[in-house]
Amino acid sequence: MNGASPVTGSTRPTWSADQIGRVAAPLREQVVTLVRDAILGFRLEPGQRLVERELVEQLGVSRATVREVLRQLAVEGLVTVVPQRGAVVTALSPEDAADLYEMRASLEALAVQRFVQRATPQQVAELRAAVEEIERTAGSTDPQEQLRAKDRFYEVLLGGSGSTPLQQTLAGLQARVRLLRATSLSQAGRPQEAAAELRAVVEAIEAGDAERAAAACVQHIQNAARTALSRLRAQS
Fold first, then answer.
1. Which domains does the chain have, with CATH numbers?
2. DSSP assignment string, 169-207
3. For all residues of the chain together, what is the average pLDDT?
4. In 3D, which of 40, 38, 28, 39 has the Cα closest to residue 66?
5. What is the pTM of this model?
6. How confident is residue 142, by pLDDT bands cut at 50, 70 and 90?
7. 198-224, pLDDT tens digit by residue?
8. Is-contact 94 113, C-beta < 8 A?
9. What are the CA-CA distances from residue 178 to residues 151, 164, 211 (Å)?
Protein backbone atom coordinates (compact mmCIF):
# COMPACT_ATOMS: atom_id res chain seq x y z
CA MET A 1 0.00 0.00 0.00
CA ASN A 2 2.82 2.38 -0.74
CA GLY A 3 2.71 5.10 -3.36
CA ALA A 4 1.62 8.65 -4.08
CA SER A 5 -1.93 9.73 -3.41
CA PRO A 6 -3.70 11.09 -6.49
CA VAL A 7 -5.55 13.54 -4.24
CA THR A 8 -2.80 14.93 -2.07
CA GLY A 9 0.13 14.25 -4.39
CA SER A 10 2.19 13.09 -1.42
CA THR A 11 3.33 9.70 -0.23
CA ARG A 12 0.35 7.86 1.16
CA PRO A 13 0.65 7.22 4.91
CA THR A 14 0.13 3.72 6.18
CA TRP A 15 -2.87 2.70 8.21
CA SER A 16 -3.18 -0.07 10.72
CA ALA A 17 -5.40 -1.77 13.26
CA ASP A 18 -3.34 -0.61 16.24
CA GLN A 19 -6.26 1.25 17.83
CA ILE A 20 -8.71 -1.66 17.59
CA GLY A 21 -9.60 -2.91 21.05
CA ARG A 22 -8.51 0.26 22.81
CA VAL A 23 -12.04 1.65 23.04
CA ALA A 24 -15.30 0.20 24.31
CA ALA A 25 -17.16 0.21 20.97
CA PRO A 26 -18.10 -3.17 19.43
CA LEU A 27 -15.40 -4.68 17.23
CA ARG A 28 -17.34 -4.28 13.97
CA GLU A 29 -17.99 -0.62 14.74
CA GLN A 30 -14.30 -0.05 15.47
CA VAL A 31 -13.28 -1.65 12.17
CA VAL A 32 -15.91 0.32 10.23
CA THR A 33 -14.56 3.54 11.75
CA LEU A 34 -10.97 2.57 10.97
CA VAL A 35 -11.62 1.73 7.31
CA ARG A 36 -13.96 4.71 6.87
CA ASP A 37 -11.29 7.08 8.22
CA ALA A 38 -8.68 5.46 5.94
CA ILE A 39 -10.93 6.14 2.95
CA LEU A 40 -11.71 9.71 3.98
CA GLY A 41 -8.04 10.35 4.68
CA PHE A 42 -7.08 8.89 1.26
CA ARG A 43 -4.88 6.24 2.83
CA LEU A 44 -7.17 3.95 0.87
CA GLU A 45 -7.48 5.64 -2.50
CA PRO A 46 -10.48 6.00 -4.83
CA GLY A 47 -10.67 2.94 -7.07
CA GLN A 48 -8.38 0.85 -4.86
CA ARG A 49 -9.40 -2.81 -4.48
CA LEU A 50 -10.31 -3.98 -0.99
CA VAL A 51 -9.23 -7.61 -0.94
CA GLU A 52 -10.88 -9.54 1.89
CA ARG A 53 -7.84 -11.74 2.56
CA GLU A 54 -5.54 -8.72 2.84
CA LEU A 55 -7.95 -6.90 5.14
CA VAL A 56 -8.29 -9.97 7.38
CA GLU A 57 -4.50 -10.13 7.71
CA GLN A 58 -3.99 -6.40 8.20
CA LEU A 59 -6.85 -5.82 10.62
CA GLY A 60 -6.55 -9.09 12.54
CA VAL A 61 -10.28 -9.79 12.39
CA SER A 62 -12.38 -12.56 10.89
CA ARG A 63 -13.46 -12.73 7.26
CA ALA A 64 -17.07 -12.47 8.46
CA THR A 65 -16.28 -9.16 10.20
CA VAL A 66 -14.55 -7.82 7.09
CA ARG A 67 -17.56 -8.71 4.96
CA GLU A 68 -19.92 -6.99 7.41
CA VAL A 69 -17.72 -3.89 7.36
CA LEU A 70 -17.59 -3.78 3.56
CA ARG A 71 -21.37 -4.16 3.38
CA GLN A 72 -21.83 -1.26 5.80
CA LEU A 73 -19.45 0.98 3.86
CA ALA A 74 -21.19 0.03 0.61
CA VAL A 75 -24.49 1.18 2.12
CA GLU A 76 -22.80 4.49 3.02
CA GLY A 77 -21.53 4.86 -0.54
CA LEU A 78 -17.83 4.74 0.37
CA VAL A 79 -17.31 1.26 -1.10
CA THR A 80 -18.60 -0.03 -4.44
CA VAL A 81 -18.92 -3.68 -5.43
CA VAL A 82 -17.71 -4.04 -9.03
CA PRO A 83 -18.39 -7.22 -11.05
CA GLN A 84 -15.21 -9.27 -11.59
CA ARG A 85 -13.25 -7.00 -9.21
CA GLY A 86 -15.06 -7.23 -5.90
CA ALA A 87 -15.12 -4.33 -3.45
CA VAL A 88 -13.30 -1.11 -4.34
CA VAL A 89 -13.10 2.31 -2.73
CA THR A 90 -15.76 4.44 -4.37
CA ALA A 91 -14.41 6.86 -6.96
CA LEU A 92 -16.94 9.61 -7.60
CA SER A 93 -17.04 10.88 -11.16
CA PRO A 94 -16.90 14.66 -11.66
CA GLU A 95 -20.47 14.47 -12.96
CA ASP A 96 -21.77 12.68 -9.85
CA ALA A 97 -19.82 15.04 -7.62
CA ALA A 98 -21.29 18.08 -9.37
CA ASP A 99 -24.81 16.70 -8.83
CA LEU A 100 -24.07 16.10 -5.15
CA TYR A 101 -22.83 19.66 -4.72
CA GLU A 102 -25.96 21.05 -6.38
CA MET A 103 -28.13 18.95 -4.10
CA ARG A 104 -26.15 20.11 -1.08
CA ALA A 105 -26.47 23.76 -2.08
CA SER A 106 -30.26 23.53 -2.26
CA LEU A 107 -30.77 21.39 0.83
CA GLU A 108 -28.28 23.15 3.11
CA ALA A 109 -29.51 26.61 2.09
CA LEU A 110 -32.98 25.50 3.16
CA ALA A 111 -31.56 24.11 6.40
CA VAL A 112 -29.92 27.49 7.10
CA GLN A 113 -33.21 29.31 6.49
CA ARG A 114 -35.06 26.94 8.82
CA PHE A 115 -32.30 27.36 11.42
CA VAL A 116 -32.81 31.14 11.41
CA GLN A 117 -36.55 30.62 11.83
CA ARG A 118 -36.52 27.84 14.41
CA ALA A 119 -33.23 27.58 16.31
CA THR A 120 -33.04 28.45 19.99
CA PRO A 121 -30.49 30.98 21.31
CA GLN A 122 -28.59 28.00 22.76
CA GLN A 123 -28.37 26.36 19.33
CA VAL A 124 -27.15 29.60 17.77
CA ALA A 125 -24.44 29.76 20.45
CA GLU A 126 -23.52 26.14 19.72
CA LEU A 127 -23.23 26.94 16.01
CA ARG A 128 -20.87 29.83 16.83
CA ALA A 129 -18.79 27.46 18.97
CA ALA A 130 -18.75 24.92 16.13
CA VAL A 131 -17.45 27.44 13.61
CA GLU A 132 -14.78 28.54 16.09
CA GLU A 133 -13.68 24.89 16.29
CA ILE A 134 -13.51 24.78 12.48
CA GLU A 135 -11.29 27.86 12.58
CA ARG A 136 -9.10 26.27 15.25
CA THR A 137 -8.61 23.06 13.27
CA ALA A 138 -8.09 24.77 9.90
CA GLY A 139 -4.34 24.62 10.35
CA SER A 140 -4.32 21.05 11.66
CA THR A 141 -2.27 18.41 9.87
CA ASP A 142 -4.89 15.82 10.83
CA PRO A 143 -7.67 15.77 8.18
CA GLN A 144 -9.90 13.75 10.50
CA GLU A 145 -9.81 16.58 13.05
CA GLN A 146 -10.96 19.00 10.36
CA LEU A 147 -13.73 16.65 9.23
CA ARG A 148 -14.95 16.11 12.80
CA ALA A 149 -15.19 19.87 13.30
CA LYS A 150 -17.22 20.22 10.09
CA ASP A 151 -19.42 17.29 11.15
CA ARG A 152 -20.19 19.06 14.43
CA PHE A 153 -21.14 22.26 12.60
CA TYR A 154 -23.64 20.44 10.40
CA GLU A 155 -24.96 18.41 13.33
CA VAL A 156 -25.87 21.64 15.12
CA LEU A 157 -27.20 23.26 11.94
CA LEU A 158 -29.51 20.38 11.08
CA GLY A 159 -30.64 19.93 14.68
CA GLY A 160 -31.58 23.61 14.87
CA SER A 161 -33.39 23.48 11.54
CA GLY A 162 -36.10 21.42 13.20
CA SER A 163 -36.76 19.56 9.95
CA THR A 164 -36.82 15.77 10.05
CA PRO A 165 -37.14 15.44 6.25
CA LEU A 166 -34.04 17.59 5.73
CA GLN A 167 -32.10 15.64 8.33
CA GLN A 168 -33.08 12.30 6.80
CA THR A 169 -32.31 13.36 3.23
CA LEU A 170 -28.90 14.80 4.07
CA ALA A 171 -28.08 11.78 6.24
CA GLY A 172 -28.41 9.62 3.13
CA LEU A 173 -25.76 11.74 1.41
CA GLN A 174 -23.47 12.11 4.42
CA ALA A 175 -20.68 9.65 3.56
CA ARG A 176 -20.29 10.82 -0.03
CA VAL A 177 -20.47 14.43 1.08
CA ARG A 178 -17.69 13.73 3.60
CA LEU A 179 -15.60 12.17 0.82
CA LEU A 180 -16.01 15.32 -1.27
CA ARG A 181 -15.34 17.48 1.79
CA ALA A 182 -12.10 15.62 2.42
CA THR A 183 -11.14 16.17 -1.22
CA SER A 184 -11.71 19.92 -1.10
CA LEU A 185 -10.09 20.37 2.32
CA SER A 186 -6.93 18.62 1.08
CA GLN A 187 -6.21 21.69 -1.09
CA ALA A 188 -3.69 23.98 0.58
CA GLY A 189 -5.41 27.02 2.04
CA ARG A 190 -8.91 25.68 1.52
CA PRO A 191 -9.59 24.86 5.22
CA GLN A 192 -8.94 28.50 6.15
CA GLU A 193 -11.17 29.74 3.32
CA ALA A 194 -13.94 27.35 4.34
CA ALA A 195 -13.74 28.55 7.95
CA ALA A 196 -14.14 32.18 6.86
CA GLU A 197 -17.09 31.27 4.63
CA LEU A 198 -18.87 29.44 7.42
CA ARG A 199 -18.21 32.31 9.82
CA ALA A 200 -20.09 34.51 7.34
CA VAL A 201 -23.00 32.06 7.48
CA VAL A 202 -23.06 32.19 11.28
CA GLU A 203 -22.84 35.99 11.38
CA ALA A 204 -25.84 36.27 9.06
CA ILE A 205 -27.73 33.77 11.22
CA GLU A 206 -26.92 35.76 14.36
CA ALA A 207 -28.25 38.86 12.59
CA GLY A 208 -31.49 36.99 11.85
CA ASP A 209 -31.00 37.45 8.09
CA ALA A 210 -32.15 34.14 6.60
CA GLU A 211 -31.68 35.27 3.00
CA ARG A 212 -28.10 36.42 3.53
CA ALA A 213 -27.27 33.31 5.54
CA ALA A 214 -28.62 31.01 2.81
CA ALA A 215 -26.70 32.93 0.13
CA ALA A 216 -23.49 32.63 2.16
CA CYS A 217 -24.10 28.90 2.55
CA VAL A 218 -24.55 28.46 -1.21
CA GLN A 219 -21.38 30.46 -1.87
CA HIS A 220 -19.46 28.22 0.52
CA ILE A 221 -20.64 25.08 -1.26
CA GLN A 222 -19.92 26.52 -4.71
CA ASN A 223 -16.36 27.37 -3.63
CA ALA A 224 -15.87 23.87 -2.23
CA ALA A 225 -17.25 22.42 -5.47
CA ARG A 226 -14.77 24.34 -7.60
CA THR A 227 -11.86 23.00 -5.55
CA ALA A 228 -13.02 19.39 -5.41
CA LEU A 229 -14.17 19.16 -9.03
CA SER A 230 -10.87 20.57 -10.24
CA ARG A 231 -9.06 17.77 -8.42
CA LEU A 232 -11.44 15.07 -9.58
CA ARG A 233 -11.19 16.19 -13.21
CA ALA A 234 -7.41 16.20 -13.00
CA GLN A 235 -7.56 12.54 -11.96
CA SER A 236 -10.00 11.39 -14.66
1. 1-91 (1.10.10.10), 94-235 (1.20.120.530)
2. HHHHHHHHHHHHHHHHHTSTTHHHHHHHHHHHHHHHHHT
3. 89
4. 28
5. 0.79
6. confident
7. 999 999 999 999 999 999 999 999 999
8. no
9. 9, 20, 26
